[in-house]
Amino acid sequence: MLQNIPQVKVGIVAVSRDCFPITLSEKRRQKVVEACRKKGIDIFEAKTTVENENDVLKALDELKSAGVNALVVYLGNFGPEGPETMLAQKFGGPSMFVAAAEETQENLIDDRGDAYCGMLNASYNIGLRKLNPYIPEYPVGDAEEVSDMIAHFVDVARVVIGVKNLKIFSFGPRPQDFLACNAPIKPLYDLGIEIMENSELDLFESFNKHKDDPRIPEVVKQMEQELGTGNKHPGILPKLAQYELTLMDWYEKYRGSCQFAIFANKCWPAFQTQFGFVPCYVNARLASRGIPVACEVDIYGALSEYIVTLATQIPATILDINNTVPKDMYEANKEKFKDYKLTDLFMGFHCGNTPICHMKYAEMRYQLIMHRLLEPNKEPDITRGTLEGTIKPGEITIFRLQSTADCILRSYVAEGEVIDVDPRSFGGIGVFAIKEMGRFYRYVLIAKRFPHHTAVAFKHAGKILFDAMKMLGVDDISFNQPANMLYKDENPFK
């Protein structure tokens, strides 16, 4: 169960220009609310209709009393561009602007609202106030259409609220051998994120203090039940349980003023020799609760994994964009690859940190590469703790938000699928297919210098991620579609 994501309480406020009938805006607002509730959208209907600045204050009091944290500014008619944009400015949280379409040709005199026109002036005033609300691709519609826009906005707002109330815990310096993870943290503060950097010694001390913690047997029992017949190294479970309790207690103790928190932790090479295990399975278990734990102190990887968790409300993972699919595997499974080219394919892999719910069959194993390095020709001991298996076939979205060396935020998003083909390898791994991946790999991932880690959402979420990045002020967003967009702000995920 996801425990580390915000609950969005959306509220709608109708606005009305004083030379238009206020009742028109109110009737249209009521129809939108009815359409939302039929679709299961929990929406608060503010009774104050904003015509002037005093109405703004009344509406804000209503929203605050109802616990609203995401605002829909609804132009039921032309709308007063000053007060309506002031409303969004003073609200402070994520906001959306949307306008009413005219309903019928039979009543274009008394009930013509001209909100189509009003959105233009609203946009101009949004710029004057330096606001960054969500505005749909075509922000004018009837009640049914507007309710669909609001449903999408709820998902976008969840990402924004989560990021704005997030703390990232990191343990250890970012590894020299993985300089790609060593990005500046200044842009995190620009996003409203807090970060608490800690030493590996801080983590090791806390871990040792949890020795003989009375809660360990219960966590071990939970692990045994989850692993079932895949519990191939039961002797390591007490240490893993001790480590899980260490992280969760840190999460509870040090979130401070933030509602949500995630981790980016050092996990090799000294981790194995000092802690006596690899942390992958624990990372997978926390990710399944909505608390990503990125390996190799990949701070932006942890953030990216959290963002896709917010967007989908499904546990996510972080994987390497790892290796090519061999030609003989491609030829042997041609019918499964459909119309994908060989260059559309790659294998997504990591040691064993993907939640068990996304695996066809998972086993507790040992980290093969570390075993070769640290325990050659020995029974696995300190390298035990991975969760390994083939990733289930189905829809995926890969995503990353990254800072450049000069503190510019960039992101990418690409939709595809995991193919039901045996990867015939180790770790948590799957065969991924993304249209135009070859072009994307060369002209986005390499050309824009993104690192090897990618966050994986287990559904298509490109539209949500695009709109959330725009609301967070990230303008450099790359896609896997061919570069034929006419307008910079056009959302390709329609």
What does it look like?
With 494 residues, this protein is an alpha/beta fold. It has 17 helices and 18 strands. Strands 10-11-16-15-14-17 form a 6-stranded antiparallel beta barrel. A 5-stranded parallel sheet has the order 2-1-3-4-5, with helices on both faces. Helix 2 (53-65) packs parallel to helix 3, helix 3 (81-91) packs across helix 4 (115-128) and helix 5 crosses helix 17. The protein is elongated.
Task: Describe the strand arrangement of the main beta sheet, using strand numbers.
Answer: 10-11-16-15-14-17
Radius of gyration: 25 Å
Shape, principal axes of CA atoms: elongated
Q: What would the average pLDDT be, to the nearest integer?
A: 94
Based on helices, strands and strand pairing, what is the structural class? alpha/beta
Question: What is the helix fraction of residues, given as a range?
Answer: 25-40%
- Uncertain segments are none
Gap between N and C termini, in Å?
30 Å
* Beta strand %: 15-25%
Largest sheet: 6 strands, antiparallel, barrel
Number of strands: 18
Number of helices: 17
Protein name: L-fucose/L-arabinose isomerase family protein
GO molecular function: isomerase activity
Domain L-fucose isomerase C-terminal: 349-475
InterPro entries: Fuc_isomerase_C, Fucose_isomerase_N/cen_sf
